[in-house]
Amino acid sequence: MKVLHNLAILGLLLVFSFMELKAQEALTLEKALQYAETESPDIKQSLLNLTRYQKNLEAQRAALKSRFSLDVNPLNFSRSRMFDSRVSEWYTNENLQTSSLFTVAQPILITDGTISLNNEFGWQKSLSDANDSESKVFYNNLYLNFNQPLFTYNRLKLQLKELELNFENANISYAMQRLNLERNVTDYFYNVYLAQMNLDIARDEQENTQTSYNIIKNKVDAGLAAKEELYQAELNLAQSKSSVQDAEVTFENAKDQLKLYLGMDLYTDILVLADVEANPVNVDLEKAIENGLSSRMELRQREIDIETSQFAMIETKALNEFEGSLNVRYGITGDNGNLTQVYDNPTKSPSIALSFSIPLFDWGERKARIQAQEAAIQAEQLNYEDQQNEIIIGIRQAFRNLQNQLNQIGIARQNETNAQLTYEINQERYENGDLTGMDLNLYQQQLSEMKVAYAQALINYKIELLNLKIQSLYDFQTNEAIIPTELYINEEK
After folding, report:
1. Phi-psi category of 22—alpha, beta or left, where left has phi over 0 and alpha has psi -120 to 50?
2. Partners of 121 in the β-ladder
3. 167 with 136, same domain?
4. Does 410 lie in the same domain as 351?
5. What is the predicted pLDDT for the residue at 23?
């Protein structure tokens, strides 16, 4: 029975170990980027913003099509006491009416006018005690109406153009968010990798410290070393255990930050797999600057800002302006007590109305607002020029950093090799009793620092190469330019 009990416990442990192993997900940088493309909260927020502008543009385009409407007044009853000045008598009038109005309205984009076809149909009963008369009649009023603003800007065109620019700007912001996503995912991913590496190094440190402790303990037990050495070895071992615990906490925190940014389940355990070897890439600085100036989406955003400020100028100039309105209407009206005879004797009803609004004096309001908007346009033009300079400086800095990181990689690689050889030599001296535990611990820490520094130099090179790619919109690893429109949502596969 005891054997069966032990086997059952062993089986359960194996099952739980398998479930825990299955729950751990191996994550490469490419897989993390693919995950973030669809699950990242930042990219989802950008998509929602893009959708908002897209739907606003679709709504505006739909509003330019013919609009059909039907207004129905099923009941309208009134009774009033009125005075007839012709005969100097008061009389009571009752009126019962029901009607409907059907309208087809078509905005005219090219002129900002509106043409509409209207048909009003109804029935009316009227009773008056002035002459004891009663009237019951069907009526129909069919007319075509045209309204055209004069001497002012085309508001329909301007509004549509503004929405188109807003949508383009949102698309650009989404594309830029995708590029920033790649940079941020890379940063978070390598933070986890470094934390994972620090944990491995701390554990190796603990194993080496444990080995050193066992050696010195055996020597002390044999009377070949002083107890002070054992006390120092115990202190070193305690410090190494504390370092492992600190590294574990840092590692778990880094994993949580990565999972949060990727939009992953926070309870999924991950293990990052990274190739940090950095192969030198030939970079043409002039080509990077040229491609950056011709392709960077921030420049197009500044151009959109300039266009938007010019639209604001058009609206500003329309303040207190001379403007007019033309309204032309033509229709036929018929009425009869018999529904089928409504148009037996129709009445033509043409009308035309022309009106003007003439500003006389505004105390300089319009002039001041125009000057303020002119200053705003100049500011946007300066922003465009500043953006160009920032792009050039950013690419230059990324290029210099990239060259510097190549040198740092060589230095860090040599430092790690020297630290490894130094540690091995001094470990042998420690085993022979020629070196104290405190001194050996210093060499151990130096080796750990050099390993981390070498890995950090490799990662820094990869990050700077990615930064140059984002700054110049050119991938020098594949020698291919990044086409901005390929990052737009409407180009996604």
Report:
1. alpha
2. 100, 140
3. no
4. no
5. 56
In a domain, 2, yes or no: no
Based on the fold, state whether residues 278 and 343 are members of the same structural domain: no
Question: Residue 15, CB half-sphere, CA atoms under 13 Å: how many?
Answer: 6
Q: Do 202 and 339 sit in the same domain of this protein?
A: no
> Strand runs (DSSP E) across 13-152, as ranges?
25-28, 67-84, 89-108, 113-128, 133-150
What DSSP string runs through 178-222?
A: HHHHHHHHHHHHHHHHHHHHHHHHHHHHHHHHHHHHHHHHHHHHT
State the pLDDT at residue 13.
44
Q: Is the pLDDT of residue 10 over 60?
A: no
Beta strands 270-273 and 25-28, pairing class:
parallel
**Which of 156, 192, 190, 149 is CA-nearest to residue 357?**
149
**Of 80 and 142, the one with more pLDDT:** 142
Q: What are the tens digits of pLDDT across the range 324-382?
A: 999 999 999 988 888 888 888 888 889 999 999 998 888 888 899 999 999 999 999 99
- Domain that residue 84 falls in: 68-108+113-151+323-358
CB 457 within 8 A of CB 197: no
* Spatial contact of 92 and 129, defined as CB atoms under 8 Å apart: yes
Helix (H, G, I), strand (E, B) or coil at 313: helix
pLDDT (0 to 100) of residue 489: 65
Q: Are 27 and 254 in contact (CB under 8 A)?
A: no
* Beta carbons of 316 and 158 less than 8 angstroms apart: no
Q: What are phi and psi of 359, to 5 degrees?
A: -70, 140
In 3-state terms, what secondary structure has residue 361? Answer: coil
292, part of any domain: yes
- pLDDT reported for residue 7: 42
Note whether 354 and 210 are same-domain residues: no
What's the predicted TM-score (pTM) here?
Answer: 0.76
CATH number, residue 303: 1.20.1600.10
Rama region for 152: left / alpha / beta (φ>0; ψ in -120 to 50; rest): beta
